[in-house]
Design goal:
The protein has 8 helices and 18 strands. It has about 350 residues and is of the alpha+beta class. Strand 17 and strand 18 form a beta hairpin. It is globular, with a radius of gyration of 21 Å. The protein starts with 11 loop residues before the first strand and ends in a 13-residue tail after the last helix.
């Protein structure tokens, strides 16, 4: 399905088929940040219907979904047996249908996996991506009345049952008030034909990175939720058993995540922006990889990188891009001590005797 915004002046298509930008990514970013613009996200849409839908999803994903009230938004992950992230879904239920919004290209795999897990339960799974559009906006304004359903991002605070590793009083995500409206193609076309300002994915991505907001696009074959600080919004630490829970609990309560996400402030003096997947080096040795990058309208070139837990937070890093070496300074998101040492009070050694 082609983008309804394709007729807008300056439209430049992204690989997902929606707008990457309309000729002015920085200006679009400012408009999106101020709540004036809308961005077509091109997300995958999977629906689950049937009386067992919430209890079933609760049993196979990381978030507590039992008793989820209509209109309440949350987020959940599908993990493998080793706790690695396979799928991520934004979740909202309307009283009869549970809506799962996932990244472009993940809807069909997610729907297929859910279909394989149905067994004898009273649930029906459908991939609705081709039938609907997903429009995002910042600024807290509710979706138009013709929205099929709306998802409100919970990232601005640690969700009940979750845990935030980023130990900041002023978390940059505290002002992140993304709303995603699921609309029909006709509604999207009418909006695109109006005078509503629009932004592209480049603008959205820069604001997401600055808010430290993880995405399935940041995940590789080794990612566990702790490394991206995803316990904050997508994992309930006290819920019942699900695939991957043992790893989630062990790493959080008894160990440390082997890697951790950092924000990189990239040197933009050469006008080169490293792309996701670029190796992150310290003294010529690889210590991580770049997960996302963008040019922010205030902070300049920034990125999210997943690095070794033991990496010195004060070390200056480099990223090779063709014949250019881009230097980068780190800002800690998940600290090196995240996990057991930070979560559990240190207890006296058994048998220890206090000497006076």
């Amino acid at each position: 399905m082609s983008s309804p915004f394709a007729a807008r002046p300056g439209f430049v298509v992204a690989p997902s088929g929606v707008a990457a930008h309309f000729g002015n990514p920085i200006g679009e970013q400012r408009a999106l940040s101020a709540g004036r613009a809308v961005v077509e996200l091109g997300l995958g849409v999977v629906t689950v219907t049937g009386p067992d839908r919430l209890s079933w999803l609760n049993s196979i994903t990381s978030q507590l979904l039992l008793g989820l009230q209509p209109g309440v938004s949350t987020e959940t992950l599908v993990l493998d047996a080793s706790g690695r992230v396979e799928h991520a879904a934004r979740v909202v239920d309307d009283g009869t249908t549970t809506w799962l919004l996932t990244e472009t290209g993940d809807a069909a795999p997610l729907a297929a996996w859910l279909e394989s897990m149905r067994f004898m339960l009273r649930v029906e799974v459908a991939d609705r991506t081709a039938d609907l559009a997903t429009l995002g906006r910042l600024g807290g304004d509710p979706a138009a009345a013709d929205a099929v359903v709306e998802w409100v991002d919970p990232w601005s605070a640690v969700a009940p049952g979750g845990w935030g590793y980023a130990a900041l009083e002023a978390h940059p995500g505290s002002d992140w008030d993304l709303r995603i409206a699921v609309v029909t193609p006709d509604s999207a076309a009418a909006l695109a034909a109006s005078d509503q300002p629009a932004a592209g994915l480049l603008a959205y991505e820069a604001l997401r990175i600055a808010a430290w907001r993880p995405s399935l696009s940041d995940v590789d074959e080794r990612t566990i939720p702790h490394e991206l600080d995803w316990l904050r919004s997508a994992v309930h630490l006290s819920k019942g058993c699900y695939r991957g829970q043992e790893t989630v609990a062990k790493v959080h309560n008894l160990g440390h995540p082997p890697r951790r996400v950092v924000l990189l402030h990239l040197d933009g003096s050469d006008g080169v922006l490293p792309t996701p997947g670029t190796p992150v080096l310290l003294d010529g040795k690889e210590v991580g990889r770049l997960a996302a990058s963008a040019v922010h309208h205030e902070d300049g070139p920034i990125g999210l990188a997943v690095v070794k837990r033991s990496l010195d937070p004060d070390a200056t890093l480099t990223l090779p891009v063709d014949d250019v070496v881009v230097t980068a300074a780190q800002q800690v998101i998940v600290p090196p001590g995240a996990g057991a040492t930070a979560n559990v009070p240190r207890l006296p050694r058994l048998g220890a005797v206090r000497r006076s």
